[in-house]
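Task 17 of the worksheet. Students: predict the tertiary structure of the chain below and write it out as C-alpha cells. Keep your answer in the requested format; marks are given for formatting as well as content.
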Amino acid sequence: MSESRRVALVAGATSGIGLAIARRLAERGYRVIVHSRSSTEAGIALAAELGDASYVQADLADDADRQRLVADSIRIAGSLDVLVNNAGMRFA
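Model answer:
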C-alpha cells in the first residue's frame, strides 16, 4: 500500500505570498487546495497549473463560508494536514 499525499489548504492563494506558498507546497509533493474570495479564474488556473490541486471559493468573512471551505477541502482530498491562513481582510 502506498503512502497517501499530504493535503494543504492555502487561503489567499491566488497572488503574492499565498501563490508562492501554494507552488512551493506542490513542488514538495503536497496536494494543494487553492482558495480565494473573488479571484475565481486565477484560482482555477493555479489549480490546473499545480496538477493534482483543486480550487474552492469562499468568503472568509462569512462563518458559513469558512466552515464550507474546510468541509469541501476534506471532501475533495479526503483529509487536511496543513492550513496556511494567508488571506487578509481590509477593514474600513
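Marker's comment: The beta strands are 7-11, 31-36, 53-57, 82-85. The chain is about 40% helix and 20% strand.
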